[in-house]
Amino acid sequence: MKTYSEARARLRWYQGRYIDFDGWYGYQCADLAVDYIYWLLEIRMWGNAKDAINNDFKNMATVYENTPSFVPQIGDVAVFTKGIYKQYGHIGLVFNGGNTNQFLILEQNYDGNANTPAKLRWDNYYGCTHFIRPKYKSEGLMNKITNKVKPPAQKAVGKSASKITVGSKAPYNLKWSKGAYFNAKIDGLGATSATRYGDNRTNYRFDVGQAVYAPGTLIYVFEIIDGWCRIYWNNHNEWIWHERLIVKEVF
């Protein structure tokens, strides 16, 4: 059993990789899910994709039925058993829980050709009947303490700090800070985060394509460079364009 942080890192590791767990029939959708559960819980799932919900997870995972009000969590396993998926099913990993209308799935073999790597796709829940939610090992005492501590209040840093207003878009520049300046939600257009390259501000480059965030996702901002807002999770930085963020709370 792994920690939740380890599981999230594993999801990111899968992106763009070809997973063939059993060595048969190319890169099937089930190969990805079977590999994930085996890595996470040391349980090898049997059957076709639709059979995943009938596996014995030895009290290390819970199977939930998908309902109109259900919103999955990152790390859940999405199982499709109805409609066009009735015969064999389809399966993938939840990369972003989204909302009741859509979620971001990491999957293989969506097109049926079994020759492409794990990719991200926004799914509208068609045919999705269940979610398998693994249990995770404790992150440890220090992480528990950290997660309970509210981000510390921040002094206004520079002239731009005075521009942070609840309900407005994020400002254009804020100096680096250990603590979050504010939290914000992604606006109705959603957002794709970027990776920053370069060793100083004069040659920074931001390449979009790191991860996709659904509208309404809540994030914390620690710095802004020329419109790019730094968020921090799972021991790494990502950058989101300031116009996609609506300030919810200032610290």
From TrEMBL:
<dbReference type="Pfam" id="PF24246">
    <property type="entry name" value="SH3b_T"/>
</dbReference>
<dbReference type="GO" id="GO:0001897">
    <property type="term" value="P:symbiont-mediated cytolysis of host cell"/>
</dbReference>
<dbReference type="Pfam" id="PF05257">
    <property type="entry name" value="CHAP"/>
</dbReference>
<dbReference type="InterPro" id="IPR038765">
    <property type="entry name" value="Papain-like_cys_pep_sf"/>
</dbReference>
<dbReference type="InterPro" id="IPR007921">
    <property type="entry name" value="CHAP_dom"/>
</dbReference>
<protein>
    <submittedName>
        <fullName>Lysin</fullName>
        <ecNumber>3.5.1.28</ecNumber>
    </submittedName>
</protein>
<dbReference type="GO" id="GO:0008745">
    <property type="term" value="F:N-acetylmuramoyl-L-alanine amidase activity"/>
</dbReference>
<feature type="domain" description="Peptidase C51">
    <location>
        <begin position="4"/>
        <end position="133"/>
    </location>
</feature>
<keyword id="KW-0378">Hydrolase</keyword>
<keyword id="KW-0929">Antimicrobial</keyword>
<dbReference type="InterPro" id="IPR057505">
    <property type="entry name" value="SH3b_T_C"/>
</dbReference>
